[in-house]
Design goal:
It is built from six helices and seven strands; from the N terminus they run ββαβββαααββαα. It is of the alpha+beta class and 209 residues long. α4 packs across α5. InterPro entries: AP_mu_sigma_su, Coatomer_zeta, Longin-like_dom_sf. Its main location: cytoplasm. Belongs to the adaptor complexes small subunit family.
Length: 209
């Protein structure tokens, strides 16, 4: 029996130009029916060097290992397809429809199932881009996003919950973000601890350790 899902998104993925993670959100609400064996990864080569489209190639993106394999493959395929850095492009991989946008040293991917509405995915992409423009003063880049990493995750949380799109109005999302940041400032010790932890993470990511 096929699992039923009301998800509108499978993932929102923000990577650097080397395919390393900046911020990712996966929405996995499908599980195999009771008694069904867990799907396993099967490797198969195709003519473009990307894994062949077996339904279980990425194990429904359930584990970090599956997700990173997927991220590596979409990075490679997007690189081969190229595209205008100012335009959203579309690629299909396995059972996923993926919209991607390359901005400076950042790649944004909006991932849906093959049956998902591409117009909805495009609307989500526009929302993500406009929100990132806002928090980086129109200077989207790896360093700028890492400096605002807590804000980036709050933005992604506002856009979707469990893969269901909750808000696509950038103004509403940014207003909620500022309200949240204002609340944090009322708790200075906690805010300082969060900032210190964030700086340590950023240093680790930038140093590659």
């Amino acid at each position: 029996m096929k699992a039923v899902s009301i998800r509108q998104l499978s993932a929102i993925i923000i990577l650097d130009n080397c395919g390393k993670r900046i911020a990712v959100k996966y929405y996995n609400d499908q599980f195999p029916p009771k008694g069904e064996n867990k799907l396993v990864y099967k490797s198969s080569s195709s003519k473009d060097g990307i894994s062949a489209p077996f339904e279980n190639t990425y194990n429904n993106l359930r584990t970090v290992e599956d997700q990173k394999l997927f991220e590596n493959d979409i990075t490679e395929k997007a690189r081969k397809l190229g595209g205008d850095s100012s335009e959203t492009e579309v690629l299909v991989l396995n059972k996923f429809t993926i919209l991607y946008l390359l901005i400076n040293d950042v790649s944004i991917y909006i991932v849906g199932d093959e049956s998902d509405n591409e117009i909805i995915l495009h609307e989500v992409m526009q929302t993500v881009q406009q929100c990132l423009d806002n928090v980086t003063n129109n200077q989207i880049g790896k360093k700028q996003l890492l400096d605002k990493l807590d804000s980036i995750y709050l933005i992604l949380d506002e856009i979707a919950d469990s893969g269901i799109i909750m808000e696509t109005n950038p103004n509403v999302i940014i207003n909620r973000l500022y309200m949240h940041e204002s609340d944090l400032q009322e708790h200075t010790p906690l805010n300082q601890a969060i900032s210190s932890a964030k700086e340590n993470i950023i240093r680790s990511l930038l140093s590659g350790t």
